[in-house]
C-alpha cells in the first residue's frame, strides 16, 4: 500500500514540472513571440469596451501584466533577433497601460487602478543597456521609447546617444531624447495648472515621479531640451527617419518652443479677413485678438 502512495506522489509532483517545460519551450522564439502578441492584442483594446469604473480598472489590470511577459521572452533569448522586437513591444505595452491608467483616473469615481509596480521600466532599460546598447537595430525601440512616461527612459536614450557608435542610431536618440524631455516638461507645467493631477500621477508613477520632474526643471531642463534639438539639427540633419529628416523635424520643434509656446509673441502673419480686407497681425498689437482658422471644401 505504501508503494502505491509513493508512486502517485512522485507522479503528481512531476506533472507541473513537465507542463512548465512544455509551456516555456513551445516553439521557436519567433513562434513564442507571435503567440504572446496574439494573446495581447485583444487585451490592448480592452478599454474601448469598458463602460463602468470596475470594467476600466479590470481592463488596466489585464494590460499591466504584459510588459513583464514580453520582457521575460527577451531575457530568455538575448541573442535572437526577436529579443529587440519583444523589448519594443514591452515598452509599447507599458505605455498603453500607463495611458489607460490615466484615462481611468480621469473617468472613474471609484475603483481607481494603480500603475505598473513590478519594476518593468527599470528592468527594460537594464536589459537594453546590457545586451543591445551597441546594436545598429535600435531605431524601432528608440522610436517607441520616445513616447514613454517613465523616468528610466531618459537614462536609456541618453546612454545610447553617448555610447552607441552608429550615426543613424545617435540621430534618432538625440531627437527622441529632446522630444521625451519636452513632453515631461509639459507634464510639470500641466500639474501646476491642474494640481488635482498630482494624486493621479502619484498613483500611476509613484510618489517620487513629480518631485523628480520638478528637480529636473530646476536644473535647466528647458535649456537642455533646446540644446538637444540644436544638436540634432546641426549634426544629424541629413539622417532620414520615419516621418522625414531629423534636421527638419528638430528645427520645427525649436520654432514651436521659441515662437509658439504660451507666453511667446506670436509670429506676424498676413492675410485676408472674413470681409476680404488685407490685414497683418501686428496691426492689432496691444489688443485682444482671436484667430479662427477654417477651410473651405
How is this structure best summarized?
The protein is mainly alpha-helical and 297 residues long.
Q: Which percent band covers the strand fraction? A: under 5%
Radius of gyration: 25 Å
**Sheet having the most strands:** 2 strands, antiparallel
Average pLDDT, to the nearest integer?
88
What is the share of helical residues?
Answer: 55-70%
Q: SSE order, as H and E?
A: HHHHHHHHHHHHEEHEE
Q: Give the number of DSSP strands.
A: 4
Structural class based on helices, strands and sheet pairing: mainly alpha
> What's the helix count?
13
The largest sheet has its strands arranged as 1-2
Structure description:
The protein has 297 residues and is mainly α. The protein folds into 2 domains: 25-117; 133-260, no CATH class. It has helices spanning 2-24, 29-44, 53-63, 66-76, 82-107, 120-131, 139-145, 152-163, 167-193, 197-205, 209-218, 221-235, 246-260, and strands spanning 240-241, 244-245, 270-272, 278-280. Helix 5 runs antiparallel to helix 6. The longest helix is centred in the middle third of the chain and has 27 residues, at 167-193. Mean pLDDT is 88; it is low at 1-24.
Amino acid at each position: 500500500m505504501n508503494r502505491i502512495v509513493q508512486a502517485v506522489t512522485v507522479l503528481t509532483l512531476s506533472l507541473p514540472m513537465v507542463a512548465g517545460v512544455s509551456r516555456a519551450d513551445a516553439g521557436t522564439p519567433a513562434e513564442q513571440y507571435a503567440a504572446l502578441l496574439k494573446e495581447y492584442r485583444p487585451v490592448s483594446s480592452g478599454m474601448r469596451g469598458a463602460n463602468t469604473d470596475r470594467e476600466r480598472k479590470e481592463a488596466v489590470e489585464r494590460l499591466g501584466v504584459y510588459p513583464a511577459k514580453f520582457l521575460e521572452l527577451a531575457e530568455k533569448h538575448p541573442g535572437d533577433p526577436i529579443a529587440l522586437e519583444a523589448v519594443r513591444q514591452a515598452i509599447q505595452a507599458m505605455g498603453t497601460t500607463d495611458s489607460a491608467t490615466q484615462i481611468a483616473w480621469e473617468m472613474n469615481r471609484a475603483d481607481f487602478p494603480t500603475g505598473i509596480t513590478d519594476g518593468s521600466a527599470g528592468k527594460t532599460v537594464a536589459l537594453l543597456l546590457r545586451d543591445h546598447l551597441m546594436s545598429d537595430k535600435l531605431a524601432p525601440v528608440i522610436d517607441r521609447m520616445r513616447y514613454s512616461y517613465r523616468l528610466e527612459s531618459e537614462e536609456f536614450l541618453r546612454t545610447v546617444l553617448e555610447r552607441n557608435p552608429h550615426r543613424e542610431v545617435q540621430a534618432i536618440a538625440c531627437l527622441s531624447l529632446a522630444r521625451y524631455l519636452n513632453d515631461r516638461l509639459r507634464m510639470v507645467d500641466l500639474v501646476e495648472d491642474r494640481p488635482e493631477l498630482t494624486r493621479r500621477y502619484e498613483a500611476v508613477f509613484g510618489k517620487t515621479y513629480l518631485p523628480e520632474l520638478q528637480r529636473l526643471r530646476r536644473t535647466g531642463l528647458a535649456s537642455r531640451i533646446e540644446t538637444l534639438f540644436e544638436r540634432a539639427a546641426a549634426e544629424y540633419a541629413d539622417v532620414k527617419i520615419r516621418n522625414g529628416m531629423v534636421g527638419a523635424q528638430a528645427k520645427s520643434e525649436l520654432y514651436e518652443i521659441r515662437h509658439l509656446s504660451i507666453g511667446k509673441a506670436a509670429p506676424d502673419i498676413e492675410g485676408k479677413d472674413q470681409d476680404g480686407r488685407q490685414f497683418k497681425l501686428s496691426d492689432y498689437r496691444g489688443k485682444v485678438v482671436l484667430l479662427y482658422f477654417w477651410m473651405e471644401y
